[in-house]
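Lab meeting, action items carried over

1. Structure of the two-component assembly. Owner: GW. Status: complete.
Input record:
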Amino acid sequence: MTFLLTTTTAAFLFCLGIAMVIARKNAILALIGIELMLNASNLNLVAFSNFWPQKENAHVAILFVMAIAAAEVAVGLAIVLKVYRKFRTLELNELDALTEE
Amino acid sequence: MKNLLFIQHYFSLSGVVSYAGYASLLFLFSAGLGTLIGKKGNQLTARISTLVSAAALLLGLFASTSTLFGEIGISSARFSFWGFAGSEFPLPAFSILFDKPGALIFSIVLFISLVVHIYSLGYMKGEANLSRYFVFLDLFTFSMLMLVMAGNLFTLCIFWELVGFGSWLLIGFWTEKRTAGIAAQKAMILNRVGDACLLAALLIVTLVLQGGDFLGIEELAARWRNSGWITLAGLFFMGGIMGKSAQFPLQIWLPKAMAGPTPASAMIHAATMVAAGVFLLFRISPLIDPVAGFTIACIGAFTAILAGLSACVQWDIKKLLAYSTISQLGIMVVAGGLGGAQASIFHLSTHAVFKCGLFLSAGILIHAWPKGKGDPQDIRNHAQFSGVPLWFKGALLFQLAALAAIPFFSGFLSKEAILEVTAAWSFSAHNRLGALGFIPIVLLLLNSFITAYYSARLFLILFSKEVKRTIHFHSSSFMIFPALILSLFSFFIFWSFPNPFNPAQSWMLPFLGKRLDLGEVHGVVWVSLFFVGLGVFGAWFIFGLNKNPNLRTGKNTVLNLIYSHYYLDTLYDRLIAGLFFRMSRFSRWVDVHVIDGWVKGAAMLLWGAGKFSYNLVSLSWQIEKRMIDPVLLLIVDGVKTSASRLKETQSGKIQQWVIFSLILLLILVLIFSYFIV
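Predicted assembly:
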């Protein structure tokens, strides 16, 4: 019962994160969405840790994920900074220079 | 094949007849040559034609004298080209007969033809269509000669119609003259009415009476005596003669035919074609029974008076001569109907000579009149000629005297013969018909008066002393000699030697048949002479003494009636032509409203069908527009939309990439989940 709830919550949070990535105009808010997705996957780890032989390994995995998330956010923010300096806007709709049109 | 056989037979006619055959064929040859030569060789055709005429005259004279005086007697040939010869089928054959009367008329026709040819060389000089003229003239002469040589009624009918055709060609010769064409038309139509009657007579004679050959006509008459068929045939023959020889009521074409060239008028309407009727009468005279004969005589006499009266008031010289011809033909017909056909042929011959001469002299006057100064045919204009030579006056005098039947001239002899025959008949018919039997002779005597009157009138007006003479007279020698020769032959001496007063001594009469019984009534000649004198005196009284040629100006209605020949022409125009015009107008109405109505209806149907099919087409277009197109557009829309969406995968927008990769992931998960679970 708890398992199901947790998994569902994680899924729901994950979807929320995807929604934020897809639907928000601002790039920083998209990054927040990515964070949310990471956190949701963390929660999923927690939920599935019940079936591991050693439940404590979940804690370690989660710490690793968090660290990587932080690093990733730093890099992401650096990219956003550079993008802002170049294009003067952070609207994701406007940032389509990678295509050939 | 059979036609070739016929030609072979024609050329193998025995003896003298062959010369006559060649003489007529020469004219046909000349006509054919003229047709080929055409307009370029006008002079050539004229000369060839005249030479042919002279050659034919020689041949014809040779043939005729052989027949008349020699032992050869009657030459005839009978051959058929239907292939039924000798069978019981009574189909007539084409037959040639050259006997004494035929030889006489043959020679006269040839002589007149030569004279007219020479005259035409002068008169028609400068004519653009001279070739055509001579072709027509020769064609006509050929037909007339063959008519004279016809051996049975059937052949005669063939050339009868051909002669009428030749006349039509010649009357309408000047195609630019509208009156000429109309006149030719009238002549042809009235002639055709006569031809229809002749055809009826031919049918009766050939089919009912089982005859038709001229050789055996007396036996035929004897066999069918007292039969109603003979009378009927006689009356139908009269119809034919009415048409061809211009007797009442079909005589109106002859004055109108004066629209043709004068030499043609001289040839056709004085001497030859109109004589064909009288010649026919001569040939069939055994078949005329008393009833038909009396009818014929009355019609002839009546016509003579009618035409003579019209001649008395004419100012146009050709019309005057035309009416005179009708009148003289009338008296010939009288004699023919009453059994004196030999006398009628005698008068035919003398009349041919002097009437042709009169026409030629009239032609000289017409030719001499300068263009543009009024009617060249009006005798009041001719009276203004100055310097008219004596020989011309003399020629005219001779010819007119012959016409008026003054003693010492040929006309007197032949007319006397006719009068004696008629008087004899009248006295013998007194038993049967009572007073009616005297109608012919009385009318003939009246006609003597009228003829003398208009002849003298003509001469007096032409050469009246009182008119101012300003126009110089001239003529060409081509025209002079023929007129002179003909006037010479109007003298009595060539016809009856040595007695100028007794026609029974004429050399002609014995050749024309059995002994002509002129009867014992010689007193009639003195009565006739009295009338002639009366006529001449009357004319001299009016025109010689009063010296005013314009005496009659025609305000009088009776005079108008006579002058216009009793309005017969107008009557026929209104009645018959009017009838035909009404019929043609009616048929035009039918054509426009009924027949074209059908055509219009069909066109309407087609138009309706066209409109309907157009509507069908537009209906299908509507269907396409309303039903098919939206579907197609929908599909197109869908493709467009999906294409644009799919394009977004490559749009370069981050969020799009995320979406698409998510969708792909979902799809992959779905697929793999089937394989795992």
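2. GW to write a short summary for the group page. Key points so far: Chain A has three helices and no strands. The CA atoms of residues 27 and 90 of chain A lie 6 Å apart.
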